[in-house]
Structure formats: C-alpha cells, structure tokens
Amino acid sequence: MSTPRPLEGKVALITGAAGAIGTATARLMHQRGALLALVDIADADFGDLAELDGVRTFTADVTDPEEVAAYVRNAHEAFGRIDIFFNNAGIEGPVKPIQDYPLEDFRKVFAVNVDGVFLGLKYVLPIMLEQGWGSVINSSSVAGLSGAPGMAGYNASKHAVLGLTRVAALEVAAKGVRVNCVNPGPIHSRMMDSLDDSAGTSEDKRDKSVPAGRYGRPEEVASLVAFLASDDAEYINGAFHTVDGALHVST
Ligand SMILES: NC(=O)c1ccc[n+]([C@@H]2O[C@H](COP(=O)([O-])OP(=O)(O)OC[C@H]3O[C@@H](n4cnc5c(N)ncnc54)[C@H](O)[C@@H]3O)[C@@H](O)[C@H]2O)c1
Questions:
Q1: How confident is the model at residue 3 (pLDDT cuts 50, 70, 90)?
Q2: Ligand 1 center to residue 1 CA distance, Å?
Q3: CATH number at residue 34
Q4: Count: domains in the chain
Q5: Nearest residue (CA) to ligand 1, atom 13
Q6: Cα gap 181→27, rounded to integer Å
Q7: pLDDT over 80 (residue 85)
Q8: Which residue ranges have their beta carbon within 6 Å of ligand 1?
Q9: Residue 229's closest CA among 56, 116, 85?
Q10: Which structural domain range is residue 146 located in?
Q11: Neighbours of 126 (CB within 10 A)
Q12: Which ligand 1 atom sits closest to the C-alpha of 143?
C-alpha cells in the first residue's frame, strides 16, 4: 500500500528545523509529499534532511528582523509560494525563581520565542494573504497554558505565543489563512533533558509527572503539526492544540 501523501506539492517553511521537533516534522512532511525550506541558526546541523530531494536549507537568527525577512524572501523565491509555516524555533532559558532570574536571560528567551514568532508572522502572512491560502502553526507549549515554577521567561513567552496566534488568526481568517498553535507537554529532546537536569528532576519522576506515564516523542508532535498543516484541518483556526499525554487537563 502506498504512503498517503496529503501534503503533496505543498511548500513548508520550518524554523528551528535542526532541532528535535523541527527535524521530526520536516521528515514527516517530506514523507507526505511536501517541499521543504528549513531554517536554523548558523552552525546548526540539518543532517541527512539537507540531502533530500525538494529540500532547501537557510541560516537565520529569528530574532533579527533583516534575517527573518531574508529567510522568508529566499524560501519564497526558491519555491514560488509558502503554503505551510511551522514557526517553531525556541529556547528554554534558565530554571530559577523570579528573584534570581537574570533580566538578560528573560530578554533572550523573549527575543527568540516571542520576537522570533512575531517576526515570522510579520513576513510570512503578507505572502499567504496574497496567495489567499496558507496554514501557520506556532510552537507554544503546555507552559503557555499554565504556570511552571522556575520558568518565568519560557512560561511567559509561550503564553505570548498563544496571544499572537489568536490575534493573527483573527486578522487573516477572512482571507483564507489559518493560524494555530501546538502546545506539547514534555517531549524526549535536548530541551527537556536540559530543563530536567536544571530542575534536578530524576529519571523516575520525569515519566510519572505525565498522566500517560511517559514523555512524548518528537514524532507525536510532528503528526499534529502535519495534520494542522493539511487541508483536512481547513476549518481549524485560531486554536491551541495540546499533545501532552493529558498533562494539561491534570493541572
Ligand atoms: N521539547 C519539548 O519538550 C517541548 C515542549 C513544548 C514546546 N516545545 C517547543 O517546541 C519548539 C522546538 O523544541 P525542540 O524540543 O525541538 O528544541 P530544540 O532545542 O531541539 O530545537 C530548537 C531549535 O531552534 C533553533 N533556534 C534557537 N534559537 C534560534 C534562533 N535565534 N534563530 C533560529 N533558530 C534558533 C535551535 O538551533 C534548535 O535547532 C520550541 O519552540 C520549544 O519551546 C518543546
């Protein structure tokens, strides 16, 4: 039986594409027929993704307006359109109570997680509005829906991503463009290892912290993103979507 290819011929632009969730999503979208424009910072390793047919890679710092304008322009010039935008680059910042949380770190987290998402929307949406179609998926988190002690920068930034998603969806829904966000719980990744190590969370406690009894896999986030990107999700707009083994509803 042939693999279903619901994204056949669609052009997907993905930031943070060399990371755990970005890579899994790029791989799944490629399997489902998408052409890919992958974006990450200068020394990022895209691995074998960069060698696949229909894949172009670009380097950019998502906090820099000129670099964002350039990655969007280059992707658009390379493929002629942008059907899907996974606005996904993010950093976690330190784990410290607010009184010890350096303002400099708070600003760094906001620069990537909020300015980066805002700038991506600012430069991609005009292209999608001109086309009259497009699906944007922003990376928020369960940390964008409820509190997490020690994570002021990350938590507040992911709440901001939810706000940006709602505003953007209202601004573009009448023109055929959709903007949703995904809110993963803890996913096996460098980012979660770093957060758990900083918080001193033992291996045993990590799995038990989730009602499903385990952390998720990057591929499980990718499935949700690929669905939201597809025409099957045509009436889904302005919404947040958890993929978290029931973590959010347990808090
Ligand atoms: N891993 C999790 O458990 C989890 C849970 C919820 C939400 N998320 C969110 O999902 C997204 C992806 O997370 P991940 O686990 O794949 O993390 P990751 O660290 O593996 O990947 C993040 C990617 O973003 C890139 N990046 C960072 N700063 C950048 C910048 N200034 N410009 C361009 N690229 C930059 C990194 O180089 C990296 O490749 C993030 O927004 C994260 O906050 C992750």
A1: low
A2: 34
A3: 3.40.50.720
A4: 1
A5: 21
A6: 20
A7: yes
A8: 15-16, 18-22, 40-41, 44, 61-63, 88-91, 112, 139, 141, 184, 186-187, 189-192
A9: 85
A10: 11-242
A11: 12
A12: 6
Residue 149 lies in a domain: yes
Is 150 part of any domain? yes
Q: Which atom of ligand 1 is nearest to the CA of 142?
A: 6
Which residue's CA is the closest to the ligand 1 atom numbered 41?
90
38-65 pLDDT, tens digit per residue, is 999 999 999 999 999 999 999 999 999 9
Is 154 an active-site residue?
yes
Instruction: Record the pTM.
Output: 0.98
> Is 248 domain-assigned?
no
Planar angle of CA 90, 200, 43, nearest 5 degrees: 30
pLDDT of res. 1: 55
Confidence band for 251, pLDDT divided at 50, 70 and 90: low
How far, in Å, is the centroid of ligand 1 from the Cα of 113? 9
On whether residue 44 sits in a domain, the answer given is yes
- For the CA of 89, the closest atom of ligand 1 is 24
- State the average pLDDT over residues 214-242: 98
The mean predicted confidence, pLDDT, of the chain is 96
Pairing status of strand 11-15 against strand 84-87: parallel
CA-nearest of 38, 35, 32 to 10 is 35
Spacing, Cα 59 to ligand 1 middle (Å) = 15
